[in-house]
Structures are given as C-alpha cells and as structure tokens.
Give the backbone structure.
Amino acid sequence: MTNESVRQLIQRNVAEKPMIRTEDGLAALAQLARRARKARVHYALCGGLAMHLYGFSRATTDVDVLASAVLDLTAEHTLSFGGDSYLVKVKGRAIIVDWIVRNDFLRQYYEQALADAVDSGVGHPILSPEWLVIIKYMAGRAKDQLDLLWLLRQPDLVDRALVKRHLQTAMGEAAYFPIRELERVFLEADTLRLRDEADEGKQPNPLGKRTRNKRR
C-alpha cells in the first residue's frame, strides 16, 4: 500500500468511523435517559462504553444500550435484531446510540441481563460483569471475544460461578455445552493473565536483556 493509499484510508476512516470519548458517550446517553425515565423504560449500558467504565480503553464509534422498549423518537434506522438507532448531538457532533430491544432467540438472555443491571455510579445502570461475559460470549464477534477475555483477565471483576448459575437458570440442562465452552475461555484468560503478570515482573537492563524483578 502506497503512502497516498494509507493517507486516503485514514481520512476515510476518520470521516466514516469517528471514535467517541467516554464523556461524550455518556452525555449522549443522558439525553435519551431523560426520555426513558419519563416513559418508564428500563435501560442499561452494554457495549464499548460499558467496557470503558469497567476499565478497558478500547475504541468505540457508538453507544450501545440495552432497553425494555424503544423510545418515542424518530430513529435513524431499525436494528435487525430488535431496537432502534438514534442520532444525538453532543457538542455539535452527531453520536449514534443503538437502543437495543432484542426480538430474536436471544431475547430472554438480554431481558434477564437488563433485570440484573447494576448501578454504574455515573448516573446510568450498566450490565453486570457476569452478564457482560455471557452477552459477549453469545455475540461471538472478534471484538466481543477480545472484550470477553479482557473481562475474565481482571482480578476480582467477574464471579465465574455466578456466570454459570445465570446460564443454568436461563437454559437448564442445555447450559452444559456453553458452560463447557466457557471453561475453555476461562483457562485461556488465566493463561493470558499469568503471561501479563510475568511481563510486568520483568524490566529491561542496560545490556538490552530482560530480567525478572527480585522479590524481597
């Protein structure tokens, strides 16, 4: 790829997929949250912005919200799996908020995740870490897999036994297979965390080699 091609690609991505800051995403949600509360619509953060609040600073281009009903607003478009996308202006910039109301075979899981939402401390409910793990696992996209592994690598963030109980309650005996698959993901996350901890215990020396810090 030539330098000119790279420049054009970057300009196109900046124009078509502008990243949003956490504070701007929360400001966009606040505008819709007022309408939701007035209409007694339950909602909770569930996407990239939720990951920001839990500490994972990955890029995101919109705000994902799980809700019990759509709002009485003109939508930019309807989501294929249920819900609407709304365009919200923040500081002169248009931010897309995907207001998710699942109407497909995953509906029961999303409804339970919404019912178990927790207080984020920043004025909006948020999906619990355990339900985020389940939702990310079921979504199965590459970025969801990255989020899933990050959540599971954080010490004391996810109660894995509670993840299993949620699945067993929702699926009964059929939960055996996703729980078995998640056990593999748990192991992968533990392996990555051990590697991270090992890397943190090393430091470069003047000779260019890496040595492990001595513990006292």
About this structure: Strands lie at 43-45, 63-67, 77-78, 83-90, 93-100, 118-119, 125-126, 202-204, 210-212. Residues 209-216 have pLDDT under 50 and may be disordered. The first strand starts at residue 43 and ends at 45. The helical segments are 3-16, 22-38, 48-54, 107-115, 129-139, 142-153, 160-171, 176-200.
